[in-house]
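Our consortium's second objective concerns turning raw sequence data into structural hypotheses that experimental partners can test. To show how far this objective has progressed, the report includes one record in full. It was chosen at random from the queue rather than selected for favorable results. The single chain below, 324 residues long, was entered without modification.
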Amino acid sequence: MSALALRGPARVIVRQHRRVLWIAGALALAGIVLLTASVWWNSGPADTYADSGCSFLDTSPRCVAAFDDMLSHQAWLRDVLRYTGIAMMVLPAAIGMFVAGPLIGRELESGTYRLAWSQSVSPARWLVAKLTVPAAITVVAVPALSAFYAWCRTAPDTDRPAWYDTTVYAATGTLPTASALLAIALGALVALLVRRTLLAMGITAMVYGAVALTLGAVRSSLWAVSTVVTPLNATPAGLPGSTLFVGSGLMAGEQRLSGETCYQAPVPELVDRCLAGHHVTGTYADFHPASHFWPLQLVGTGIVLVLAAVAVAVAFRVLRRRHA
């Protein structure tokens, strides 16, 4: 840390919580080692099967054994990637709880903040340091972890979850870093409001979880969907691969109708009569192709960063009101 020339409150924060920082770094390193080993372990059977000259149609015992071995390794790597994605989803909440509890809430609850404020450190500067240190670590560590996770998903012969899978979407791109910054802001705000360590940690986790669930529920509406319209009685056009399906229904000219409007009729004759009565001309399907990953990510990131900025502004306002 000396190379970083930390001074004042920032240096005190790092020294106070260096054990937690070392543990967090060790866990991150362990995760990277596990992912690397899993990718390497998966590549062996895949290369062996590719060099064997077998195909999945070959029923010889040698080929069946090699094929099963490759599938089992791919399933293992898929599970590792999924659990790693879950860990990346939980990571922002853990960071927010650390800020709300040990970093700020404990000092407010025990009264040790008065010692810092009596040594020419203003309340605002104290809070800036409390926010800056975890934010600086976050903007360095989280993008690195996210990029490494994304790289592991692109490894050859990997049976990986789709880009729109909840764990993948929340663990890649710009959203993980923005989510961690939001959790830091929420943790600081909650700690200043409740001034109790455990209570602040619990509320922070619940508030962040509610925000994350809400954003996940409206994710598909953050960017305009692509639409495929198929004329009535024509063969439906297939959607592109790796597509997030949003919805479908009937088209009556330019008007959209629910797919249940007519197809719940008990007999085909009633279905045809219903379609004719509503002047149905075809069907539609809304979806997000893989090319929409970055637009959805960037819009979601912008929303999260705005919420983080609002939470920081409110936190400083609360600090001024209570400790002006």
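The partners drew two points from this record. The chain has eleven helices and four strands. The longest strand covers residues 244-252. Both points have been shared with the crystallography group to help prioritize constructs.
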